[in-house]
Specification:
single chain, mainly beta, six-stranded antiparallel β-sheet
């Protein structure tokens, strides 16, 4: 992920024939990456809500109009993943601002304040 002139990478390890085969069916697939690892893609400015932390591929909250990501992590202020309003990842979208598809968005008093950070996304597949 590139924000400004800073480029950061993390490794998401999944066995599959292709990335397309992992995301095309829209089925959620969890990853083992932790919250801090996802935040490291953005750097010190990263911000997420303090609950939920649904992370992986095809990540979506119960309310489908709220945050979602093809590859990423979602956060919520409630102790559930119903109406998530923060996200970091690739192929992101959903409520409050659906104008950028990669980066970090957080609203309503996330852990590092409200953010709207667009990024250039790089996904390398081996």
């Amino acid at each position: 992920m590139k924000i400004g002139q800073q480029i950061k990478f993390v490794v998401v390890s999944k066995q599959a024939n292709s990335l397309h085969s992992l995301i095309a069916d829209r089925k959620f697939r969890a990853t083992s990456l932790g919250r801090n690892t996802w935040k490291s893609l953005v750097g010190t400015q990263a911000s997420l809500k303090r609950n939920c932390f649904k992370k992986g591929l095809n990540v979506e909250c119960s309310s489908t109009s709220h945050s979602k990501a093809r590859v990423g992590i979602l956060g919520n202020d409630q102790n559930d993943c119903g109406t998530c309003n923060s996200r970091i990842g690739f192929g992101v979208g959903g409520k409050h601002n659906d104008t950028h598809t990669c980066g970090n968005q957080a609203r309503y008093s996330a852990d590092n304040g409200d953010k709207m950070m667009k990024a250039m996304g790089y996904i390398l597949v081996q």
